[in-house]
Each structure stands twice: as structure tokens, then as C-alpha cells.
Amino acid sequence: MTPDNSFQDPALEQALSEIRDQAPDPAVVEAAANRVWARLAEAAAQAGGEPIHGCADFQALFADYRAGRLPQARAMLVEDHLHACVACRHVYEGKVVTMPAARPARTSARGYYAMRWAAAAAVVIAAGAIVWTLVERSGAPAGGARVAEVTGTLYQVAADGTLRPLAAGQTLPEGVELRTAKDSDAVVRLADGSQVELRERSSLIATASANDLTIRLGRGSVMVEAAKRSKGHLFVDTGDCRVAVTGTIFGVSAGMKGSRVSVVQGEVHVAQGSSEKVLYRGDQTVTGAGMDPEPVRDDIAWSRNRDRYYKLLADLRASLEQIHLPDLRYQSDLLHRLPASTVLYASIPNMGEYLSQAEDVLNRKIAESPELAPLWNERAGKVQPIIEKLRAASSYLGDEIDVVIAAGANGEPQPLVLVSELKRDGFPEFLAQQGLSLAVEVRRGLVAFGPDRAAVNAVAAVLDSPVGGFEGTPFYARIEQIYHEGAGLLICADLSRMGHHTAGLRYFVAEEKEVNRQMEARASLTFDPAHSQIAAWLADPAPMGALDYVSPEAGTVAAFVVRDPAAIADQIAGMLPMPAELGAQGDLRSDLVHSLGGEFALALDGPVLPVPSWKLVVEVYDPQRLQSVFARLVANANRKPAKPGYTVRMAQETVDGRTYYTIECPEMGPLAAAHYTFADGYLIAAPSRALVKRALDLKLAGTSIVRSETFMALTPRDHYANFSAVLYQNLGGQLAPLAGLLSSFAGPHAGRHGQSNPAEGLANLKPTLIAAYGAPDRITVASAGDILGARLEALLTGDAGTWASSGPLGQLLGTGTGKPAYREK
Fold first, then answer.
1. Residue from 823, 790, 820, 825 nearest 805 by CA
2. Domains of the chain, earliest start first
């Protein structure tokens, strides 16, 4: 900000110019010094103070000066002495811990003269500062520092060492020491508008001098949001380094082993001894030889404002979701060239353009949100080379990259081989430049490469022929069917030929693709016809009336339809011991399975505490027959109680023309109680009659979960109108009370001082839905989700190991997790 000269007076300017240009006469200076000293001495005598004769006298006044209790005259003398005396300044700043044992002798006449001259100079300087402020209207704003927020206890350390608790809103005199107690933190707003956040067990003193403001951090950690200034700086002094900033967000820690400075935004200058470093956003420095740097994200994790920086990651993810994958592929120019012995096939679209778009999004987000930069800069050194390698490799390869595993002569799977069309020459040389010892073979415009020379040669030999032999196999037909529907990222395995532990399993297919601008993941497991009993458990996709009794606020829902309850019961009975009651009474089992219709839904539909609000909805064709089964089961339980004195009771009551039933064990409390009724061909059960009644009201009003926008938005887009099974969770709201309870057990500061708080994630779970579709020989599972986007976010935010483990191409390009640059705790 340029000075405002509209209030300057020409006469004043001329007078100031003459004062600057005129050399004072020593006699005049001596006379002025004598007069100033006499007035100061007179003011000190009137205040009841003793004469000041040397450093020991000045040091005895430091406590009162720091607390703001000195008269103005004495305070000016102390300030002038601190500017002139290095030894006393060290004592004042805490660098010297011992006081002089005895008062030194009176100063000499020369020293006395110097002190009086310094006093006169202090008066002149003070007057000049006033004139300068009036002329340029700059400097610290009116008003002092104040306590903005306190969690726990913040103390003011008095001159006598006692601790005085401070509350939010209190103003602070200049120069007082502030200290936070254990499990406490505080925010202090300084006179210039800067904000300082103190971590627990931290101590600081803030003092002003001319246009500068200094924070002396004795111990602990602070986060500083420095106000922008027209002149002067904000300094943070830790004893072994001095940080100079203006308009910056940064963190400083001072400990026994040294200091650490982390920059979130802006630029800081760190002076240590005779050297100075300039740090920018995302940079960090340490002063102690025994200290290692740590990620800036971790260094500021204790701050109450950390979420303001971290939430930008969510903005990044939202932007990445706007990037679209390459178009779906409806045919493959490579598939028919593969060997007939192929047992695993993965098709990956060339991701070069995708990575370029993702990097553009990242750069744009950093430009829009500077706070995001530290999270990227601290890991960019490891991530950027990975992106460049992947993008460089993509420039040599065609639109599709296939991963092939073929069976050897003994039937065992061989090492993987990657196959692609070549867009330009030089790919083998590129791999060599990366230091990768991979076997590479080029055939008829195609390239085969991988870690095993024999496997690469075997695939390359087949590529010499226009037809590789794979086209006539059933596995090829299964893959070709997927291409007809549009392929994105695709993995297919012929499980029947991949080992001895896959009896009954035929093919496994997993794919992810973009449909109508929505990412979907889908997996299908095909069974051999002779081993399809488990696949036959799920019925073909069918309407689920049981969901009409589940509310849109349900936390979890599991619903499914089965082909034949009796057949499932028989298969389970063959694998597991039959309960004694059902085994001894065959008609009981028959009555149970033949009264059911094959549709089931179980939900957590209400508060989790104190009693979980579970809800069970079962399709029932014969309610009387099922009720008789319940009565016999209760009678059997009472004949052989689980514990002596425990009894199971049945009751029924008619309310508003509807019969409600209860089965409970009073000795076990409310958790062992179930209330239910029969309505419209369903049994509706819950831990209380109120919840059962609410379920009936939902059905009557037509406001169930199938009318929920959240639920329906997560359903996969395909040609099916219904599901065979559906799993849904939206636990964020349900678990919020539990998260709060766990947080209270963990303590009020869990997760705020660099420690993770496991309860934080419970209330932030995103809704998910998984749908299953049954068929006589297969089960298909689908979900609307972006697996690739999650892995790309992991790559861009520095988790290179996640990307490496996600695919063979990443492994081949050396994207494994490197050793961290900081010491693991």
C-alpha cells in the first residue's frame, strides 16, 4: 500500500528535511540529554522507583515491563536499554537463565552520559514515530490482542509465575506470556489482525516494535495466519531460528531437539545463524540435527482448521469424476490373434489422454485453491515421474493394451505378457531407458513384452499368424459377448483351466465402464452346469415387495429372492448340523419352508442405540402355518432352556383391528424381543410395535426406500428392471450418535493433535449399493462406482503403491512404493 500524502503539510515537510540535513551540535545534544534525563528521573522519583544504575537494575524490571506494570518513563528506558545491550536482550528472551549474583558498581560518567543521551534519542525516536504515523497513517491498528477461542484452558503467566486462566473474548496486555494446558488449544487474534493457534502445552510471548510484531515461541507448536501488512513483518522466534512473514499461513514447532517450520500458503524467510532459507507453500525445514522432516499434512494435522485444507481433496475427486474414460470398444483387433491356451485376458484402454486430462485438472485446482498445493507438493516428487512414465509409454502403444496369461504344456498358468499395437518405433529402447529388464518382441505391427522371456516368445510366435487359435474356444465366445455390449476395463479368467481348486466354477468376468456418464463396476461368476446348485439359490431378477416396508432413512438393507426355499434348506442341512427341533420333527421343517414365499429383507431402519432398530420382512404364503411353527419352536425352547430360569414367551394383542404378536425372553432384556404382524402376504417384524406400525404406514403412504432419490441414483444402469439381491448402506446418519460416543471415549482432542480418530470416519460413510442378478448358471454383481477414479486419486495424492498394485502395467513401469523421505514412527 502506498502512503497517503494528502495530509502532508509543505511546512512540515520542510522542517523535517531541515532536521534530517542539520548536524546537531554536541553541546546542544548534551543539554537536551541532561534535560530529558532530569525529567525521566523526576518522573521515576514521583512513581516511587529507585534509580537505575546498570544491567542488574534493568533486568530486575523485566518482569514488570513484560506484564505492562512499569510507568511510561521507566518502560521507555527499558526499551532503549534492550536495543543497546545484547546481554540483557538475551536475558529478556530467555537465552540466559541465570541473573547476575550482585549489583555491579555505578556506571562511569561516560556510561551515565551515554544512558542520558540514549534516553534523549529515545524521546526523539518516539516523537518521530508519532509524526510518521500521522503522516503515513500506517502501523498497527488500534486495540490489543485478544483471546478468540479456547478449548480446555489457556493461562496467562503472571510476573510472579502464577497462572491466571483466560477466557474467550478477553483482551491481552502486550508482552504477557500465554500457555496452553494439556489437552487444550486456543486461538489468539493479534493487534495487527494476525491469528495464532496454539497447540496443547505451548507457550509464547508477543511483543510489538515499530511496524514489526514478534512472537517468541518458547515451546510447543503454533499455526499462524499472518495478516497482510503495508510495511513491517510478523516474526516468529524460537531461539534457534527466526521466521519472517507477511500475509502467510504457516506452522512452527519448537522442541528440545530443534524447530520445524511448515508452509501452507505464501512465502516465509527462515534465518538460522548466518544463513537464511526461503520456503514456499508445501516446503518444510528443520533446525535440529536429530529431527527429520515429515509431510506437511501430518505436521498441521493437530490444527482445528485442518479440515479447511483437507476438504480440497474432495473437490479434486469431484473434478476427476468429470474426466471421461476412452469410448467403449465394441471389437478387438487383438483378441483373435491370441493363443488358444489363453486362460486369463485383461483389456485396458490406452490411458495416455486420460492421464493428461487428470493432470490438467490437478493443475487447475491448485491454481484455483492454493491450500491444495502443500498436499500435492509434498508427494509430487514421487508421483510426477510415475505419471510421466505411464504417459510416455502410452504414446508408443495402440488404443488397447491386453494382458495375457496362457497355460503351459503342463496346464499350469505361465507369467503374464502384455500385447498391444505399436503406434511408433522405439518402444524397446524406451523400456531400456527406464532401466526395465523386460523381454520385448515385435511381430506384424504388434508388440509383446513382459518379465519372462519364454512366455513372451511363446505369445510372439502365435502373433506371427493372422489367426492365433483363440477364436474357436468357448472362452473366446464369452469375451466376444462382452465386446458386443461395449467393453471398458475388462478382466476375464477361465477358472476351469487355472487350477485344482475351482471345481464347479467356469468363468470369472470383471469390468468397469462408463455408461451414460456414470461409472459402473460389474463382476460375473459362471458355474459349470453340473455344479450350479449355489448359483440356483438366487432367483431371476424379480420385484421385491418387502422393500415397501423399509424407509428411505434406513442405514443398511439386504434384500433377496430365492428360487426354492426348500431346496436351499436341504442343501444347508447337508452341509451343516440340523437343529434338534427341526431334525426330530420333519413336519416342522416342511411347515416352515412351505409357508414361505422366497423373498426376504433385513434392514437397520432407525436409531442404533440403545436398541438397534432392525426390521425383518419375509414373504409368507400361509401365516397360520408359520405361526404354528413359531409356537412349537417356543415350546421346544422352554422344555430345554438355554439357561436355568430363562423362559421364552409368546403373546398377541389386537389393536385397531390388527393382530400383533410378541416373542420375547424377559430375562435377556429388550434385545431379546421381537414384535411382528402379517400384512399383504408379508411378515413384518421389529424390536418394538411402534417400528412395526411405522413400517405399515410407509407401505400405505408409498414413501418407502424404493422412492428414495439416494437409493435409486445408486442403482446400476442395465437392461434389468429388478434385482435378485441388493445390498445397500447409508450408515453416515445412523452412526453419527455412535461416532460421537466413541469420540467422547477417545477424549475431546482425539485426532486433533496429529493422532487419528477412528470415530471420525463413521459419520462420513458414503452411500453404496451392490446389486446381484441370478441366472441358472451364473451370478452377476454390479455397482455404480468409480474404482479407477479412486486409484487415480490415490496416485495423484501420492499413494503410488495403490496404483502399482492395481495393474500389471503399473508394476512393469516401476510404480512400487518407495521408501519415505521421513522417518517412520
1. 790
2. 10-136 (no CATH), 145-303 (2.60.120.1440), 335-532+777-812 (no CATH), 536-730 (no CATH)
